[in-house]
């Protein structure tokens, strides 16, 4: 079933979240989609625990804390979040709106779209071996997979960071797999000490096999329809073959602009060109905010993205309700905004 909304926000990074707040103040219903399984975009994915010092009125806060605060701020608007899915297509509808479809097959019908896609959708880093991608829909699992689906299978997890160690440990604990191998290109891990310790214990118990090496080729069976083994270069010119039924690469995430570049929007150096007064692109009802947009003088800073979200919300209110006069209301004093924020009747904060 398509989901209908006034505005669909692509990206739940800091700017996409604040966009939802500004749309809420303008009484424009919206929903948000993000490729990541969590909100916060770069702030959480790239520098969750690092301090930010240049947010007005907040002397210091971490990336993760900012994302949490933004979520608190939009809570009154009960914005539906659709996480872990990438918006793949955008097409005009006969009534002047837009139809969008995500990688999970969810369809949205929106009167307006706000692209807050930052540096692109964070997607798993792929394993670059000839012929491997043919097995992506069957034996290669880039995203979280239920251990039960891997019942009786010989599983190889790839990577040396938290996500790889966590996945290998969870699968080993589940007892569902025939074997669990952790394959990493060297013997140094970049993971939490507790995870490394748990890994060593699992290896000592024989429930995880540790392999150091680089995958360089594949072996297939049944006329190439099934992946049966990985060829591994193990250093000093030697190699090894590892039998595999399921490969779970956990090599980190990297941002990819992806399908947005094919939507017919004007772009300059992979950024969407917008009118800085309204954040409008050349397509009616489609605006872009945050790191993804470009105009003369644009700075890729949170503060600038928040400003752009505010302008885009005013512009969309005018676009969606052309008959209505636009008022500038203050959250401090407006009874209507207090009602929307769920603070009506509460005494002013001192
Ligand atoms: C290390 C580092 C430190 C920084 N420190 C500061 C600082 O101190 N002060 C400051 O002001 N700025 C800082 N920045 C910049 C700031 O983080 C960015 O300006 C900000 O994150 C931009 O927010 P955004 O919401 O536009 O994009 P992002 O944070 O990139 O979020 C975009 C979201 O859109 C999603 N997405 C993209 N395409 C799709 C799609 N097709 N479908 C679904 N989802 C999609 C992505 O998965 C992502 O979650 C820093 C950046 C980095 C890397």
TrEMBL record:
<dbReference type="GO" id="GO:0050661">
    <property type="term" value="F:NADP binding"/>
</dbReference>
<keyword id="KW-0274">FAD</keyword>
<comment type="subunit">
    <text>Homodimer.</text>
</comment>
<feature type="domain" description="FAD/NAD(P)-binding">
    <location>
        <begin position="6"/>
        <end position="294"/>
    </location>
</feature>
<dbReference type="InterPro" id="IPR022890">
    <property type="entry name" value="Fd--NADP_Rdtase_type_2"/>
</dbReference>
<feature type="binding site">
    <location>
        <position position="122"/>
    </location>
    <ligand>
        <name>FAD</name>
    </ligand>
</feature>
<feature type="binding site">
    <location>
        <position position="291"/>
    </location>
    <ligand>
        <name>FAD</name>
    </ligand>
</feature>
<dbReference type="InterPro" id="IPR036188">
    <property type="entry name" value="FAD/NAD-bd_sf"/>
</dbReference>
<dbReference type="InterPro" id="IPR023753">
    <property type="entry name" value="FAD/NAD-binding_dom"/>
</dbReference>
<keyword id="KW-0285">Flavoprotein</keyword>
<feature type="binding site">
    <location>
        <position position="47"/>
    </location>
    <ligand>
        <name>FAD</name>
    </ligand>
</feature>
<feature type="binding site">
    <location>
        <position position="87"/>
    </location>
    <ligand>
        <name>FAD</name>
    </ligand>
</feature>
<dbReference type="Pfam" id="PF07992">
    <property type="entry name" value="Pyr_redox_2"/>
</dbReference>
<feature type="binding site">
    <location>
        <position position="34"/>
    </location>
    <ligand>
        <name>FAD</name>
    </ligand>
</feature>
<feature type="binding site">
    <location>
        <position position="332"/>
    </location>
    <ligand>
        <name>FAD</name>
    </ligand>
</feature>
<feature type="binding site">
    <location>
        <position position="42"/>
    </location>
    <ligand>
        <name>FAD</name>
    </ligand>
</feature>
<comment type="similarity">
    <text>Belongs to the ferredoxin--NADP reductase type 2 family.</text>
</comment>
<keyword id="KW-0560">Oxidoreductase</keyword>
<dbReference type="GO" id="GO:0004324">
    <property type="term" value="F:ferredoxin-NADP+ reductase activity"/>
</dbReference>
<dbReference type="InterPro" id="IPR050097">
    <property type="entry name" value="Ferredoxin-NADP_redctase_2"/>
</dbReference>
<dbReference type="GO" id="GO:0050660">
    <property type="term" value="F:flavin adenine dinucleotide binding"/>
</dbReference>
<protein>
    <recommendedName>
        <fullName>Ferredoxin--NADP reductase</fullName>
        <ecNumber>1.18.1.2</ecNumber>
    </recommendedName>
</protein>
<keyword id="KW-0521">NADP</keyword>
């Amino acid at each position: 079933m398509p989901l209908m909304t006034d505005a669909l926000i692509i990206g739940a990074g800091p700017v996409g979240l604040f966009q939802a707040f500004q749309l809420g103040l303008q009484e424009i219903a919206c929903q948000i989609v993000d490729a990541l399984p969590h909100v916060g975009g770069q702030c959480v994915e790239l520098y969750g625990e690092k301090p930010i010092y240049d947010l007005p009125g907040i002397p210091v806060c971490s990336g993760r804390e900012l994302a949490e605060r933004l979520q608190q701020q939009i809570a009154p608007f009960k914005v539906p979040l659709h996480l872990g899915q990438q918006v793949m297509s955008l097409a005009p509808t006969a009534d002047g709106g837009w139809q969008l479809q995500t990688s999970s097959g969810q369809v949205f019908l929106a009167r307006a779209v706000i692209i807050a896609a930052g540096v692109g959708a964070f997607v798993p880093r792929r394993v670059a071996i000839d012929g491997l991608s043919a097995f992506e829909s069957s034996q290669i699992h880039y995203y979280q997979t239920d251990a039960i689906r891997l019942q009786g299978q010989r599983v190889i997890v790839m990577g040396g960071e938290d996500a790889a160690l966590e996945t290998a440990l969870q699968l080993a604990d589940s007892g569902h797999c025939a074997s669990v191998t952790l394959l990493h290109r060297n013997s140094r891990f970049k993971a939490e000490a507790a995870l490394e310790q748990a890994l060593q214990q699992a290896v000592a118990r024989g429930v995880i096999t540790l392999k150091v090496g680089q995958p360089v080729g594949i072996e297939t069976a049944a006329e190439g329809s099934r992946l049966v083994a990985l060829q591994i270069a193990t250093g000093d010119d030697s190699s090894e073959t590892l039998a595999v039924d399921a490969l779970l690469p956990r090599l980190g995430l990297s941002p990819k602009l992806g399908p947005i570049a094919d939507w017919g929007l004007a772009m300059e150096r992979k950024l969407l060109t917008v009118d800085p007064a309204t954040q409008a692109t050349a397509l009616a009802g489609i605006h872009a905010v945050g790191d993804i947009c470009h105009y003369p003088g644009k700075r890729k800073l949170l503060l600038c993205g928040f400003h752009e979200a505010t302008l885009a919300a005013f512009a969309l209110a005018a676009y969606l309700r052309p008959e209505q006069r636009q008022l500038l209301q203050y959250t401090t004093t407006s009874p209507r905004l207090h009602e929307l924020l769920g603070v009506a009747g509460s005494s002013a904060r001192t």
